Amino acid sequence: MTAPQCPMCKRPAEADYKPFCSRRCADLDLQKWLTGAYAIPAAEDDDGDGESPALADPGED
Ligand SMILES: [Zn+2]
User: Fold this and answer.
1) Residues 39, 7, 5: CA angle, nearest 5 degrees
2) What single-letter DSSP state applies at residue 24?
3) CB–CB of 23/8 below 8 Å?
4) Which of 2, 4, 44, 47 could hold 13 in an S-S bridge, CB 3.0 to 4.6 Å?
5) In a domain, 61, yes or no
6) Is residue 2 part of a domain?
7) 7, 20 contact by CB (below 8 A)
8) Which positions ≥6 away from 45 have C-beta within 8 Å?
9) What tens-digit pLDDT sequence spans the chain (61 residues)?
10) Separation of 20 CA from ligand 1 center, angstroms?
């Protein structure tokens, strides 16, 4: 039978931290998740070509 491997470092997973081998790897994966979730709206905000927002309207005072 095959022991489950830690997805972070490929070491044998520990029952306490399944599917990871240690708390550190579990934390690393969680951080990856969080940063990935935040990176999506941030990248969208950075992309500004396609349509011009009303703010870019030339002076109509
Ligand atoms: Zn690991």
Assistant:
1) 170
2) H
3) no
4) 4
5) no
6) yes
7) yes
8) none
9) 678 999 999 999 999 999 999 999 999 999 988 888 766 555 555 556 666 666 666 776 7
10) 5
Q: How far is the CA of 33 from the centre of ligand 1 (A)?
A: 16
Domain count, the chain: 1
- Looking at residue 54, what is its pLDDT? 65
Model confidence pTM above 0.70? no
Contact 21, 11 (CB under 8 A): yes
The H or E element spanning position 44 is: helix 23-46
Q: What is the pLDDT of residue 12?
A: 96
Look at residue 29 and tell me if it is in a domain: yes
Separation of CA 39 and ligand 1 centre (Å): 24
Residue 59 included in any domain:
no
- Tokens for 53? 């927002």
Full domain range(s) for residue 1: 1-40
